[in-house]
Amino acid sequence: MRFVKGHGTGNDFVILDDPSVELTADLVARLCDRRFGIGGDGVLRVLPSTGPAASWFMDYWNSDGSLSEMCGNGIRVFARYLESTGRVEGDSVAIDTRDGVKTAHFDGDQIRIDMGPARHLGHSAATLGGADYTGRAISMGNPHLVCSVTDVAKLDLSAPFDYDRALFPHGVNLEFCQPDVALGEPSAYRRMRVIERGSGETLSCGTGACAVGAAALAEAGLHTGTVKVDVPGGRLTITIDESTCWLTGPAVLTFTGEITL
Fold first, then answer.
1. Residue with more model confidence, 187 or 140
2. Where, by residue number, is the active site (predicted)?
3. What is the CATH number of domain 2-105+251-258?
4. Does the annotation list 196 as a binding residue?
5. Residues 249, 110: contact at Cβ < 8 Å?
């Protein structure tokens, strides 16, 4: 099986470009295993779209073999792969996902994605390692809980956590963030770490960064603005206007190979 590996701010993916491959939860988990497989936070399979608004469908699977509605870093990597294989005309491409069609815009090493508007679902709470955290529940097509803390570096994200299963019946991505006052206006900068649903802690989460940006602006009493979100794997820029949320960041293809299962 041929594959391509890529990442967006350290959030890494196995890309499969063969529609004849029948993915299963077990196969995806084996491919993403960092010791016995290729290694990755998820699998991106390139499929033709069945709808009229896009030519390609991003079939995204989490590393544990579960499906996800959307992946912000993944769709940038997916777009970079389409560009590298000559499937992009001009400086943008529409991509179908389980959360609808998203448009990727190319600007050098940066790719900007129209992620759709953030939906604020109120406040909720989570328990991590026996400690309670309150935060904002936000949907970016997939569920997020954004909790503010004083120091993200001190958190043990390998500890077990629990959440409101009535509000999040299909699980939740749990983001912890802190204002970075060293970089300027506190509402404009956040440091973030994340536990991704189906993958555990990752170096970055694009939809999570969007949720953090939306939460930061809401905390400042703002409806629009730009927030820089620093994750362990780099920096993402979130811009919220009157109609949508834009996610901007790098996407890199790192190597190709073949795996025998």
1. 140
2. 71, 71 (proton donor), 205 (proton acceptor)
3. 3.10.310.10
4. yes
5. yes
